[in-house]
């Protein structure tokens, strides 16, 4: 069959093959180097500093058993791991670094295929970007969500309840002491955030793209069925190599459009827009912002999950899981794209059933009839911006208000709660200098908190506009990913406090209502940091693309394939 790894190991009288074999032996049987056993890397993002992925070593063990069982050779490959809660200034600053490092290690090593183990927000995107660029046979095992914790008898939603409870403290309706006591209840078990945040969303995206064994996404991390699935994934990885089924054959344009339909139906994170654009960019699949609006249009919201709804990820799994949900929108899915199993995703839907239609709504009774992410344009965002209507207040989707402009998060923190801040509930809060180049790294600060004096009045949502992202666990009427960002000279840099801002989601517009030319005539306020002096940040700022192109590095677009031209000794 001509395995790629055999190019390292198979030369009989060759000094280099001797070196490759001798150093890898360490108890492996001779047959491991016979040239007919696929060598499968297990790209593992387990790390104590990525607490959501800390359990992946156990998952990796089950994958390895599956690889052995199918006649392959499993090889542990620890890769850069990004923990959403710990990394400063934002984990997003290193998504492309993790993707690049993983891509290079997959290509440089004697492997034939790879099983990708991720969980926390940036880990599955970076792994899929890497696998796309190398295009070796690959599949994903998502690490799974945690079980739901409770506080005072009420389920706690990861992330979402941190935002909600901390705003209650600021509003004076919850004591600080009670807030702090909820802390040990927030994370009940191994696994990633239990809301339909970015981690849960990207696990569902991996499945909708065809890159998991269908039915795996959303399996709770502590559930023994996850280990069973992991074993099966190891076996399948060996078969993928034998059949030469590569990511580029699975993640076709049709698969991306299926992912966009899925994103709307689950009420998934706006971050998926950026990640899917970046993955498509690696594969050379044509995909742009307008595809999200078009393919997501008219897709009903069926998952009653926080932050858009009420329940949490283990409820979704109990209720039938992603496949049961997708069965309701089967007519909107392209049946052509095949998954890693060789069968189309839609072939798995007939057996899926909804067991609790309070969690997974029937098509006839959706939470929202039209849940697709809306792509806005206008003189404030010539290259686009996004809003998630499912997480917004319906009455604010059409709104006109005075801008209150903040130059970066430090300015926001310094002035937001000042009693003298000239702001009311009709104002539009504008935050700039927080895009890919400006922060740098495009942090999740777009759901900026509301001024304390308005919270005290009972205001719980306002229109907000920024070049930042927001956490997938957050909610509100927030216009995100404004492109070009202020630090790239976008119109956001020319807006001033007091300007009238007009949001019209139905018309897909975000504008500042000023006479033509007035905005352009102003000097831009170039907030954000100076060009970094060295290192990754320097490379990142010099090469990162805008949000409408996935915020990848410009020179990482396209696939490099798996070929390595030269030997090492
Ligand atoms: Fe890791 Fe939310 S912090 S998934
Ligand atoms: Mg996040």
Automatic annotation (TrEMBL):
<dbReference type="InterPro" id="IPR052352">
    <property type="entry name" value="Sugar_Degrad_Dehydratases"/>
</dbReference>
<keyword id="KW-0472">Membrane</keyword>
<dbReference type="Pfam" id="PF00920">
    <property type="entry name" value="ILVD_EDD_N"/>
</dbReference>
<keyword id="KW-0456">Lyase</keyword>
<feature type="transmembrane region" description="Helical">
    <location>
        <begin position="255"/>
        <end position="278"/>
    </location>
</feature>
<keyword id="KW-0408">Iron</keyword>
<comment type="similarity">
    <text>Belongs to the IlvD/Edd family.</text>
</comment>
<dbReference type="InterPro" id="IPR000581">
    <property type="entry name" value="ILV_EDD_N"/>
</dbReference>
<dbReference type="GO" id="GO:0004160">
    <property type="term" value="F:dihydroxy-acid dehydratase activity"/>
</dbReference>
<dbReference type="InterPro" id="IPR037237">
    <property type="entry name" value="IlvD/EDD_N"/>
</dbReference>
<dbReference type="InterPro" id="IPR042096">
    <property type="entry name" value="Dihydro-acid_dehy_C"/>
</dbReference>
<dbReference type="Pfam" id="PF24877">
    <property type="entry name" value="ILV_EDD_C"/>
</dbReference>
<keyword id="KW-0479">Metal-binding</keyword>
<keyword id="KW-1133">Transmembrane helix</keyword>
<keyword id="KW-0411">Iron-sulfur</keyword>
<keyword id="KW-0100">Branched-chain amino acid biosynthesis</keyword>
<keyword id="KW-0028">Amino-acid biosynthesis</keyword>
<keyword id="KW-0001">2Fe-2S</keyword>
<protein>
    <submittedName>
        <fullName>Dihydroxy-acid dehydratase</fullName>
        <ecNumber>4.2.1.9</ecNumber>
    </submittedName>
</protein>
<keyword id="KW-0812">Transmembrane</keyword>
<feature type="domain" description="Dihydroxy-acid/6-phosphogluconate dehydratase C-terminal">
    <location>
        <begin position="359"/>
        <end position="551"/>
    </location>
</feature>
<dbReference type="InterPro" id="IPR056740">
    <property type="entry name" value="ILV_EDD_C"/>
</dbReference>
<feature type="domain" description="Dihydroxy-acid/6-phosphogluconate dehydratase N-terminal">
    <location>
        <begin position="37"/>
        <end position="345"/>
    </location>
</feature>
């Amino acid at each position: 069959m001509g395995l790629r790894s055999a190019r390292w190991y198979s030369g009989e009288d060759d000094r280099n093959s001797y070196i490759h074999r001798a150093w890898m032996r360490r108890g492996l049987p001779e047959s491991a180097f016979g040239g007919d056993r696929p060598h499968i890397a297990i790209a593992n993002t387990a790390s104590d500093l990525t607490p959501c992925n800390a359990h992946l070593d156990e998952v990796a063990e089950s994958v390895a058993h599956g690889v052995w069982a199918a006649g392959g050779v499993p090889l542990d490959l620890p890769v850069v791991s990004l923990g959403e809660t710990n990394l400063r200034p934002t984990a997003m600053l290193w998504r492309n670094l993790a993707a690049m490092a993983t891509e290079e290690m997959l290509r440089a090593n004697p492997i034939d295929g790879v099983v990708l183990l991720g969980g926390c927000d940036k880990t599955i995107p970076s792994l899929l970007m890497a696998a796309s660029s190398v295009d070796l046979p690959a599949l994903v095992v998502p690490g799974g969500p945690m079980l739901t914790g409770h506080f005072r008898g009420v389920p706690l939603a990861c992330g979402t309840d941190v935002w909600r409870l901390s705003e209650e403290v600021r509003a004076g309706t919850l004591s600080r002491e009670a807030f702090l006591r909820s802390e040990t209840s927030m994370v009940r078990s191994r696994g990633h955030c239990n809301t339909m945040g970015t981690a849960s969303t990207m696990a569902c995206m991996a499945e909708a793209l065809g890159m998991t064994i269908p039915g795996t996404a959303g399996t709770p991390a502590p559930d023994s069925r996850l280990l069973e699935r992991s074993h099966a994934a190891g076996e399948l990885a060996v078969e993928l190599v034998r059949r030469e089924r590569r990511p580029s054959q699975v993640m076709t344009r049709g698969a991306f459009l299926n992912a966009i339909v899925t994103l709307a139906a689950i009420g998934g994170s706006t971050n998926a827009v950026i990640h899917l654009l970046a993955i498509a960019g690696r594969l050379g699949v044509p995909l742009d912002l307008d595809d999200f609006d078009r393919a997501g249009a008219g897709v009903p919201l069926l998952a009653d999950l926080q932050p858009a709804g009420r329940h949490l990820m283990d409820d979704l799994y109990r209720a039938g899981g992603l496949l049961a949900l997708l069965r309701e929108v089967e007519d909107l899915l392209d049946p052509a794209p095949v998954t890693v199993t060789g069968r189309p995703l839609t072939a798995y839907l007939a057996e899926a059933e909804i067991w609790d239609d309070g969690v997974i709504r029937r098509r006839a009774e959706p939470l929202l009839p039209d849940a697709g992410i809306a792509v806005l344009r206008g003189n404030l965002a010539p290259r686009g911006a996004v809003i998630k209507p499912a997480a917004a207040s319906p009455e604010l989707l059409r709104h006109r208000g005075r801008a209150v402009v903040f130059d970066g998060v430090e300015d926001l923190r310094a002035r937001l709660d000042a009693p003298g801040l000239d702001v009311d509930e009709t104002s539009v809060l504008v935050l700039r200098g927080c895009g890919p180049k400006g922060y740098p790294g495009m942090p999740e600060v777009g759901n900026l908190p509301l001024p304390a004096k308005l919270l005290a009045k009972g205001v719980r949502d306002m229109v907000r506009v920024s070049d930042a992202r927001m956490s997938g666990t957050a909610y509100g009427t927030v216009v995100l990913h404004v492109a070009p960002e202020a630090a790239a000279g976008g119109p956001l840099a020319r807006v001033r406090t007091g300007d009238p801002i007009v949001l019209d989601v139905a018309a897909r517009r975000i504008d500042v209502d000023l006479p033509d030319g007035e905005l352009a005539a102003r000097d831009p306020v170039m907030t954000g940091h100076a060009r970094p002096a060295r290192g990754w940040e320097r490379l990142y700022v010099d090469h990162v693309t805008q949000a409408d192109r996935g915020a990848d590095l410009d020179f990482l677009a396209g696939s490099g394939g798996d070929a390595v031209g030269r030997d090492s000794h």
